[in-house]
Specification:
Shape: globular
Oligomer: single chain
Strand order of the largest sheet: 1-2
Helix content: 55-70%
Number of strands: 2
Order of helices and strands: HHHHHHHHHHHHHHHHHHEHE
Number of helices: 19
């Protein structure tokens, strides 16, 4: 009987590797009718469920496999991936750590753990994990690239560029690494090098729309408006609904007094905004629309897309009413900034017996 089950298991794994998930799932279910405690079948079934976006089911199945065989590192690794999918961060990290404890020399375990840590903003730990993955496999191009991404988030742009270069040296035409190196060059004011890298991205993938948008924006910073217009026009041809592309194209044409197709583009922007699409940024919309309603819609769309609702903190308990009036000041300038210096006395002048003052900083 065990030989039959093992043969079925091999077949299920082969089907899974070929991307035939329903067929692989069916064989796993058949195995479990023969041997309900076949941990490999429970695990593979859980992995298939995870790929089919059923993370809760995956967690349940892989947990059963772990209860039977608690020394299989890949069980913990894949359950960690499932926990990530349902935002159970502590459970995910515990399982990644368990997988690494069992098999400390698997670079992919360190890699996924570091991706997860970067996702939740723990960049220092993430960087150390990528370093470990690279130490275990120096030719791990994705680890070099994502190490660069973490350094980019830490605003260590020159170091990020070196990581991207290493990634491309291992994996030529690695589009993500080339594109992110262009963004890094742009961030440190090396616009000409950024332009070269964005063009390199387009050479690798002609339809790489993000490169065209960023290339056009970089050209604008150099006041090379006509070149920027050409790339915006190409972008709009490739993807007419690309976020803010039409708006940036129109704004750039306005800067050189090119009024051709102006009315048609304004009408197109109006239609897109009415559909809730992000077609133009709030600031240039002021120069395009005299409708306060449209300007507000543009700002709301931008705000929603740029700062999506996050429920990680749960619901805030409503505070009881106070005898004092609460005033909240929202600002990106609560640091050594002219606005704060000019407003400092205003904050001081509030009658604290009548008003409760709260500052909300969303800047540096």
């Amino acid at each position: 009987m065990s030989l039959v089950v093992e043969k079925m298991m091999d077949e299920a794994i082969a089907l899974y590797q070929d991307g035939k998930l329903p067929e692989g799932k069916l064989i796993c279910l058949n195995i479990l009718t023969i041997d309900p405690k076949k941990s490999d079948a429970l695990h593979l079934l859980g992995v298939i469920e995870l790929q089919e976006m059923n993370a809760d089911i995956a967690i349940n199945l892989i947990s059963k496999a772990i209860a039977i065989s608690s020394n299989c590192s890949n069980y913990f690794f894949n359950r960690a991936n499932a926990y990530v999918a349902v935002c159970q961060n502590d459970m995910a990290l515990n399982d990644y750590d368990s997988a690494i404890k069992i098999d400390p020399n698997n670079p992919y375990y360190h890699f996924n753990r570091s991706l997860f840590l970067a996702k939740i903003g723990r960049y220092g730990e993430s960087l150390a994990g990528f370093d470990r993955a690279i130490a275990l496999n120096e030719g791990f191009a994705e680890a070099h690239c994502n190490r660069g991404n973490v350094l980019y988030e830490m605003r260590r742009f020159s170091e990020a560029i070196k990581s991207y270069q290493l990634a491309v040296s291992i994996k030529p035409n690695y589009l993500d690494a080339i594109f992110n190196s262009a963004n890094s060059y742009r961030s440190i004011g090396m616009a000409e090098l950024a332009i070269i890298k964005y063009k390199e991205c387009i050479a690798v993938d002609y339809r790489h729309t993000k490169s065209r948008f960023n290339l056009a924006a970089t050209l604008i910073s150099l006041k090379r408006f006509r070149e920027a217009i050409n790339y915006f026009e190409e972008l709009c041809d490739l993807e007419p609904d690309y976020e803010n592309a039409v708006g940036e194209l129109l704004a750039t044409k306005i800067r050189i007094s090119d009024w051709r197709e102006y009315r048609g583009m304004v009408s197109l922007l109006d239609q897109s905004i009415q559909k809730g699409k992000s077609a133009i940024l709030p600031f240039p919309s002021i120069a395009v629309f005299d409708s306060l309603l449209l300007q507000r819609q543009v700002a709301e769309i931008w705000s929603k897309n740029t700062f999506p609702v996050k429920n990680s903190l749960g619901l805030f308990v409503r505070r009881p009413r106070s005898e004092r009036i609460r005033i909240g000041y929202f600002s990106a300038d609560f640091h050594n900034h002219a606005t704060t210096w000019l407003m400092a006395e205003l904050f001081e002048k509030h009658d604290r017996d009548r008003f409760e003052i709260i500052g909300f900083s969303f800047g540096p």
